[in-house]
Amino acid sequence: MPAETQQEPAGLTDEELAQLDAHWRAANYLSAGQIYLMANPLLTEPLRPEHIKPRLLGHWGTSPGLNLVHTHLNRVIKARDLNALCIWGPGHGGPAVLANSWLEGSYTETYPDITRDAHGMARLFKQFSFPGGVPSHVAPETPGSIHEGGELGYALSHAYGAALDNPDLLVACVIGDGEAETGPLAASWHSNKFLDPVGDGAVLPILHLNGYKIANPTVPARLPEDELDALLRGYGHDPVHVAGDDPAAVHRALAAAMDTALDRIAALQHAARSEGVTDRPRWPMIVLRTPKGWTGPAEVDGLPVEGTWRSHQVPLAAVRDNPGHLRQLEQWLRSYRPEELFDEHGAPRPDVLACIPEGARRLGATPHANGGLLVRELPLPPLEKYAVEVDKPGATLHEPTRVLGGMLQDVMAATADRRDFRLLGPDETASNRLEAVYAASGKAWQAAVLDVDEHLDRHGRVMEILSEHTCQGWLEGYLLTGRHGLFSCYEAFVHIVDSMVNQHIKWLRTTRRLSWRAPIASLNYLLTSHVWRQDHNGFSHQDPGFVDHVLNKSPEAVRVYFPPDANTLLSVADHVLRSRDYVNVIVAGKQPCFDWLSMEEAKVHCARGAGIWDWAGTEDGSREPDVVLACAGDVPTQEVLAAAQLLRRHLPELAVRVVNVVDIARLMPREEHPHGMTDFEYDGLFTRDKPVIFAYHGYPWLIHRLAYRRTGHPHLHVRGYKEIGTTTTPFDMVVSNDLDRYRLVMDVIDRVPGLAVRAAAVRQRMEDARLRHHDWIREHGVDMPEVTDWSWDG
């Protein structure tokens, strides 16, 4: 297959070609060696079975292509003195990126015991996918990486996130065949409509088509070139095609393609930055077609391997037991002529290193892949500026997220020059009451603008696209390269990124154990438009289970908060925006909500995470309470306080304690979560043997799971969302799920010893109120006046 390109090759000299090929062959040798060898790294003696790893793990098929891209990126970075980062979408090609990091020296700088000689090469080989070693993917342990690629679909959105507000950075992004089939990747092609050629860097997508996934052909690789070209042009890119299986020809073609693409990028940026051109750029990209498992075994046991799906992982699988496979492996490794690539001590020869840039220009040494080295403290204003006045609890109402919007507006304004904070969400910034930020920054947009449009801004830092995957990918790339952000989303639909946040949490957990990885700003979610207020959306928009998913993950990296009013939301937001290396989830409503705590009270309460609201209860301190009413979430808090008020009125002799929980992990034992309470603390707050009626925002079994080891767990009764919902009134939602104030009073009567008989009439009145509610809303379409006009009178 001849090499092809849309542009004339730039013209490598024979010497440059030889040097590039030497580097590529060395990287291929090191990649294969990591998969197979645990001794004899330079083949100074014939291969024997004991030189081979007992378990052969890794992915060869993509590695030659990744090595080719890395080699040619080295060339252009060095020639043009570029500041560059690369996202390796086929992250399972870990051997390739590790090999290149070792060749350029960044691996030895990070891990001094993996020296750049035969001894270090042997350790590099043995540690790969080996107990006590390193993973097979481009993992956090890999210098220069911000993207593992274990789950496919996010490489391109990560690349664009890294490029945002990094005007001098080139982000190359290798997208593999399989990843190109995923939905998240398909949506992320549209990121080019949001990339500002003035204030942002450039992304160079490299679609690497080697034809196959694990066992099947890939869709994009089987498309005729003109059809694929039309698709990519339809996405707004300007593709440059390179294809071939002759190394010399492909080297020349890829060098020309990279020069062409980078010349176009430079021209587009110059036009926007120096000439005032505002047309949306058609950014270049490269389509690279090379054989899967290129330069590996052509056939194994009579079956074709190179250029087929059989080369995806380990082409020769029985090397220890099959002498024929062992001979074939040795022939394969010697085909790279390692004696030409490494000296007698195992160090790379000068020709191998000729294309490698120096210092921080090396892909494995760029500080942009270790964003904690670049992150700065956010200029957060004092919360008192935004605090709502609370002379007494429950006397006024505010929309908590609208109050937060004022704070975020000032954060956006304070970072206008340094450009290191972004607000992201899927078309919901205004819906979630955060539109105050538009006074400080509009919405990023490079496409056409019509007169009817509002707040669109070519240089904006509010990011909206109706793809939760893309929002998440942008934000992860932004954070991992040293910036700050907040992801605002409808509560029910944040589940779309369940597996993405899982990957990010795993990344954070791993980096905490790497001393050379500096802490990055936390990934912060604001979940609103929540389950209890979906008046016009209904059942499809009701799912509070994201917190259950997050709390299953590494306790050291996850935090979940339920601020019950505007001031507590401000306090929590201030905390999470200052934090490092966490995934923080804030669940807060956007509808009018009673103000319970002053700003100072809110700060203390949020720092405590859970506490007694003594003004809401009726215990006098002379004895233990008869019952504890606990709550987490804004609507549950209101219902608990309404229930406490009913109990004060109808059963004044009852000693009621009200406990509000902001930090839900406080319910866990200290041994299981850093924020967990000791048994002593928990028993003091909730008692050891008194009934606890807990009104919770989400699925009730989460509270049981968090508190199951507590002494008082048999006395814990939780009310929450039970997957019952529709388009109905706000109060009918809580009634339908048995979370309402009347049901909570009934629960108290049912569970406090002696009340079942003594308070039977009170219980009957509560049941009657629920029945009256049922009839009222079906006649009037709104909640009963005693509910809509309720206020705290304590």
Q: If you compute it from the alpha carbons, what radius of gyration comes out, rounded to the nearest whole angstrom? A: 30 Å
> Approximately how much helix is present in the residues?
25-40%
Largest sheet descriptor: 6 strands, parallel
Backbone structural class: alpha/beta
Instruction: Give the tally of β-strands.
Output: 22
Distance between the termini: 83 Å
| Sequence stretches where pLDDT stays below 50 over 5 or more residues | 1-7
C-alpha geometry: elongated
Say what oligomer this is: single chain
Mean pLDDT reading? 95
Residue share in β-strands: 5-15%
In what order do the strands lie side by side in the largest sheet?
Answer: 12-9-13-14-16-15
Number of helices: 27
What is this structure, in a nutshell?
This protein has 27 helices and 22 strands. 56% of the residues are buried. It is α/β, with parallel strands linked by helices and 794 residues long.
List the helices and strands and how they pair.
Blueprint: H1 14-36, H2 63-80, E1 83-88, H3 94-104, H4 106-110, H5 118-127, H6 155-163, E2 169-176, H7 183-188, E3 202-209, H8 219-222, H9 225-234, E4 238-243, H10 247-274, E5 284-289, E6 299-300, E7 303-304, H11 323-334, H12 338-341, H13 350-353, E8 397-398, H14 400-414, E9 421-425, E10 443-444, E11 456-457, E12 462-464, H15 468-480, E13 484-490, H16 498-511, E14 523-528, H17 546-551, E15 558-561, H18 566-578, E16 583-587, E17 593-594, H19 599-608, E18 610-612, E19 627-632, H20 634-650, E20 656-661, H21 679-686, E21 692-696, H22 700-707, E22 716-719, H23 730-736, H24 741-751, H25 755-758, H26 760-780, H27 785-788
Parallel strand pairs: 1-2, 2-3, 3-5, 4-5, 9-12, 9-13, 10-11, 13-14, 14-16, 15-16, 19-20, 19-21, 21-22
Antiparallel strand pairs: 6-7, 8-17, 18-20
Cofactor: thiamine diphosphate
Keywords: Lyase, Thiamine pyrophosphate
Organism: Streptomyces thermoalcalitolerans
